[in-house]
Amino acid sequence: MNPKPSSPSFNAGDGAVFTHEGTHELDAAIMDGATLRAGAVACVSRVRRPLRAARAVMERSEHVLLVAAGAEAFAQACGLELVDPVFFSTDARRTQLQHALSADKSMMDHDGAALVFRASSTLAAPLLESSKLGTVGAVALDRHGNLAAATSTGGMTNKRCGRVGDSPLIGAGTYADNRTAAISCTGTGEVFIRGVVAYDICARMAYGGQTLEVAAHEVVMKTLAALGGRGGLIAVDAQGHLSFPFNTEGMYRGHARLGEAPQTAIFVEGHARIK
Length: 275
Prior knowledge:
Shape: globular
Number of strands: 12
Strand order of the largest sheet: 3-2-1-5-4
Order of helices and strands: EEHEHHEEEEHHHEEEEE
Largest sheet: 5 strands, mixed
Strand content: 15-25%
Radius of gyration: 18 Å
Structural class: alpha+beta
């Protein structure tokens, strides 16, 4: 039997997008805000739960980032489950790849060289199933005041093999520091890397005295947008304040507090209680 997670709707694990070559390369990262320890894996194609591998890197090695075959060998040595890469494949994602390949063929330059792969923003068209990708991120604040962040993704449809986005890069797509905030990002990965988005927000808080909401809003709506980046993030600060800025039509998100009903939202208008 080959058990699968209950939902392939998100671009992480089962349901991850395809590379240009029709393969899967998954990335994940986790960070502990109390110690600033972090772990990440990138370009793995056989690790069933990449975030567990990222956590193993953080807790069981002297490294922060392991990639490809080396990351898979480490995961296996730690007793984590490996699967055949076909495990991650779905018909919906294969259709997305076929559409992307067709689009590439129609956008050849005069020399016959393919144009640069365009990022399919996780959040670009939340109402269109064919466009929705769904990087998975989580941030948390516990009762002791400790922050943590984690992000898992399959990257972008039609990406070149070996491409690494922002999710497994500490400071770009994932960051946590008890002094400031925990942040997980999603969107145009290359731009989040160039802007070191997750760390930039924490730095604005630490050195500039900005609140989480102000810092996150300025980075997403101004810095990121100025570079042509689309996307958003989820964040919680050391006092439990939340921020969910995004510069796209919508962003799938939710939050829960002890003693309160969980809430979810897609668009700007706010949250709806989970029934």
